[in-house]
Amino acid sequence: MYRHHNKTSQAVVTEAGKVNMPGKVCMVTGANTGLGYEISLILAGMGATVVLVCRNKHKGEEARKRMIAATGNERIELIVADLSSQESIRELVHYFKSRYQKLHILVNNAGHISWNRQETIDGLEMTFAVNHLAPFLLTNLLLGPLQKAAESDGEGRVVNISSSAQRIGKINLADLQSTKKYHIMEAYAASKLAMVITSNEFAQRLQETGITVNCIGPGHMRTAFNSKAGGLSGIINTFPLSRWLIQNMLEKPVAEAVQTPIYLATSPELKGHTGLFYGDYCQRETPSRYVNNKELASQLWDISAQLTHIPSELTFNREDR
């Protein structure tokens, strides 16, 4: 149950929360609700400039106004983008680069889950595209601003919000688009495992650049997103009593789930630490065994680069639209 958390972790997060971040630029995807909103709110409260990436303009603007009212920080900007569209991602990056030279923290939080197989405007399976390919492409295209932050201010951090579901995920390189078989939790778990695998690959390839890439499986949270989960959780959530029991006994509040991403994004303790996977309450964990499969990681990276139309080699000064 979420209440049995580690007091030491709380102290670490409290210390991280004391970090002042004026002059630092942060980007959070999926920032208008749930975990993304809480992450953005805390970063804004630390004095950072926070760029909210949201799909819905109205919801994003309402979230931005609430954050400004709560923190008094006017340096909160909304960029509307649909992360299921690679063109939209490129437009997002182009606009960001026209306004900012540096990016200190990138939090890839936006996610997708659906009962039925759907395709993006690019003809890709939606869950894999949003949960894996979108952060893969976005991170690659923002390496320049991240590197500039590292060069001038000592580091640039990428924090990827994966899921504990990555432990049951399997990568089928022959059917990444789930055309032969689609199951909601299999597709979701595979996409979140793919994110962890390429996060680790990013970390390896970015050694000595000052850019760190770490991953989180935040566990069960009390959010609207989790209410759409499939399998047993989805069935249980359809019944009022069992849904109440899950939300109040098994799922932790977002205010607690936000501890780990804020720790990874801001804690001075983690400067220079990369390629790590964290679970609940700032506890470092060992991810799926597939993460250490170098051949799989290399193949998945190359396929992801092909599907997003970028070079397989890292490029720090791309002007890609």
Total helices: the number is: 12
Q: Strand tally, please?
A: 7
Per DSSP, what share of the residues sits in E-state strands of 2 or more residues? 5-15%
Mean pLDDT: 87
Would you give an account of this structure?
The protein has 321 residues and is an alpha/beta fold. The protein has a single domain (7-308), classed as Rossmann fold, CATH 3.40.50.720. It is 45% helix and 11% strand. It contains twelve helices and seven strands. A seven-stranded parallel beta sheet has the order 3-2-1-4-5-6-7, with helices on both faces. Helix 2 (34-45) runs parallel beside helix 3 (57-71) and helix 4 (86-99) packs parallel to helix 5 (126-141).
What attributes characterize this protein structure?
alpha/beta; disordered N terminus; Rossmann fold; 321 residues; 45% helix; 7-stranded parallel beta sheet; 7 strands; 12 helices
In short:
This protein is α/β, with parallel strands linked by helices. Helices cover 45% and strands 11% of the residues. It has a single domain, classed as NAD(P)-binding Rossmann-like Domain (Rossmann fold, 3-Layer(aba) Sandwich), CATH 3.40.50.720.
